[in-house]
Amino acid sequence: MYRCFDELDDAVIILDRKNTVVWLNRSFREIFGIESEAVSGMDAGNFATCHLAPCFEDEGSSGRLFEALRYQEEVSHAACRVRTRAGDLRWFSFSCRVMTGEPYAGMVLARFRDVTREDDGATSVRPGSVYTSIGELIPYGTWTCKPDGTLLYISPSYLDLIGTTLEECRQSGWIGCTPLEDAAGVLADWQHCLATGCRWDRELDVRDPRGGYRTVLSRGAPIRDGSGRIVLWAGINLDITARKEAESLTAVRAAQQAAITALGRRALEGAKPEELMDAVVLRVAEHLEVEYAKVLRYLPDEDAFMLEAAVGFDGGQIGTEKVEGGADSQAGYTLLSREPVIVEDLSTETRFSGPPLLRNEGIVSGISVIIQGDRGPYGVLGAHTRRRRRFTRDDINFVQAAANILAQGIERRAAEEALRKSEEKFREIAERSFDMIYTCYHDGGIAYISPAVHRILGYAPDELIGRKCRDYISPSSLPAWEEAQVGLCRGEPVEGLEVEFHRKDGSTAYVELNVSAILEDGKVVGVQTVGRDITGWRQNEQLRQQAFYQIERNIEQFAVLGDHIRQPLQVTLGRAELIEDPETAAIIREQVERINDYIRQLDRGWVESRKVRAFLRRHEQE
User: Fold this and answer.
1) N or C end of the chain: smaller count of CB under 10 Å?
2) d(CA 225, CA 231)
3) What is the per-residue DSSP string for 355-385?
4) What pTM did the predictor assign?
């Protein structure tokens, strides 16, 4: 294997695990004039001090290199100036790597790459060590070209990225040697810049030898002499992969947030639970970029889950497929742990066993969160993929937000359904009630009134919707009505309020109202009222009062009539005593006595009438 390095232009040193010299390749022997046999088995520190040190012009850079060899430290593209065996001063890029693959693990490979820049004698571009060092501080460094685009120099870090050498880039052009996603388009742009002298500014998607792509921002400009003639092109290659990934991630998170907003709006609009579930699993799979997403409803009596909505799974399993709870499934473990659960590799998972629902699909990685209801967990929302993936905290937050919206939507729908049933029950009771029941809001008038209003006031319910109750109250009842409104505005109930209403036919109806306030956010916005028709009772009361009045008059008349009769009788009796005819006088006295009996009977009737009156008064008070 060592002799393979003899084919390289770079100077190579190989150190074994004991940090002693094993091999110097052909280029090293030619550049530095040191033979392998002379240093084989020598400690790396002694080798650097005794044999390499005399070749270095810059003690500062050589000290860093020698320290890396002595302690087997990794170094990437350190610039150093070396006097070669031929006596030339040349610039080299030094790299030191500790090998990891067997059977060479622990051994060290050190490399010197000639990076001296020349233009075949026409124009010498020899920037100093400061320029070279600054270029290597930039990810993928700097480059310079002749006016026709022939490469003069490009940083070693970029050469490592594209897996080629400076000589190959000089022969084929650095654009041609770069493995690009859109090679033809990039080359056309570069040739346009060379032809017109405009600035070069292009993002390059470069295939990485280790897999994937790196995004490189390549920028350059022509350098002109005093006459305006282009004498050189210079530029940089900047690694912006991290920035592009951050921009992509930001766009992903923004899309996820927009999806959560759309799901929340759909839940507020009253989507049915099954519709909301379908929307949630679809959006989670789409914006998390996974093949599978599912909603499992928890069945506490069975300690199991029912598949209620899914993406990626067989549609026939929805509503029929059950998953075991507890440690037999990821969903069960999620409920037990009471927190989100992430699986990177289901085949090596030890916390729980994967259910057939996941294993049959070849699922490798996944994430699951609890769908938490008000009275306990509704179930679990999961997202899964067949490729190995490491989910992040942002992924957890996205899935949990979707689960929270689903939980709120389910709870809201259940509450609305309960309210609807309650309203239907209330309406059924109101429809059958003998009393008039109505709901009236300050800003909208009567919203509902029961059919009993037709019997009591003569109006059909539809005729009063949107109208104000006050419009149908007689002026005589308005003071009591206004007084009641004051208490209602404070949220106080009103009971037994007797109000006189105008009927549709113009007659009067007396209604006893029991009123309670409707509150929203602590503010009275309307009233709920039950009205009982008391017109008949009021008429009976008036008749009773008239009866009492007549009794009072009769009693008074009895007393006055007795006094009026007694006075003429006394006169008649006195006249009888003066009559000389005894027989006539006897007849008169007999008739007077008979009249007195009648008066006494009237007195007894008066007394009895007073007793009856007293009894009725007591009964009325009771």
Assistant:
1) C
2) 7
3) PHHHHTTT--EEEEEEEEETTEEEEEEEEEE
4) 0.48
Residue 584 tokens read as 């006539």
Beta bridge mates, 501: 473, 509
**Angstrom distance (rounded) from CA 380 to CA 376:** 12
| Residue 233 · residue 222 · CB < 8 Å | yes
Distance (Å, rounded) from C-alpha 105 to C-alpha 91? 30
Q: SS3 string of 524-561?
A: EEEEEEEEEECHHHHHHHHHHHHHHHHHHHHHHHHHHH
Q: Which tokens hold the place of 287?
A: 């914006």
Q: What pLDDT is attached to residue 358?
A: 83
- pLDDT tens digit sequence for 50-91: 888 888 876 666 777 888 888 888 877 777 888 888 888 888
Question: Is the Cβ–Cβ distance between 162 and 151 less than 8 Å?
Answer: no
What is each CA distance from 184 to 181, 204, 221, 573, in whole angstroms? Answer: 9, 12, 21, 154
Token pair belonging to 459: 């109006």
Q: Is the separation of the CB atoms in 488 and 527 below 8 Å? A: yes
User: Tokens representing 586?
Assistant: 């006897």
In sequence order, which residues have a C-beta less than 8 Å from that of residue 558 and are 6 or more positions away?
Answer: 602, 603, 605, 606, 609
Read off the pLDDT of residues 97-123 as tens digits, 9 standing for 90 and up. 888 777 778 888 888 988 876 543 334
Which whole number is the average pLDDT over 527-549?
A: 76
Can you tell me the distance from the alpha carbon of 95 to that of 141, in angstroms, rounded to the nearest whole number? 15
Sign of CA dihedral 38, 40, 41, 47: positive
Question: Could you tell me the two tokens for 237?
Answer: 């290659």
d(CA 297, CA 228): 76
- Give DSSP secondary structure letters for 293-310: EEEEEEETTTTEEEEEEE
DSSP-derived secondary structure letter, 212:
S
Measured distance CA(362)–CA(157) in Å, rounded? 40
d(CA 205, CA 312): 32
Gap between the terminal Cα atoms of the chain:
123
Give the three-class secondary structure for 201: strand
Helical H segments across 102-240, by residue range: 129-137, 156-162, 166-172, 174-177, 183-196
User: How far is it, in rounded angstroms, from Cα 549 to Cα 546?
Assistant: 5
pLDDT of 189: 93
CA 215 – CA 2 distance, rounded (Å):
35
Confidence band for 152, pLDDT divided at 50, 70 and 90: confident
Crossing angle (nearest 10°) for helices 582-621 and 535-578: 160
Give the phi and the psi of residue 503 in degrees, each rounded to 5.
-80, 165
Mean pLDDT of 350-379: 84
In tens, the pLDDT along 570-604 reads 777 776 677 767 777 777 777 777 777 777 776 67
Joined tokens for residue 403: 């689960």
What pLDDT, on the 0 to 100 scale, is given for residue 192?
A: 93
β partners of residue 144 = 153, 234
Q: What is the pLDDT of residues 169-215, one digit of tens each?
A: 888 888 888 888 788 899 999 999 999 999 999 999 888 777 778 88
User: Residue 592 is inside which H or E element, if any?
Assistant: helix 582-621
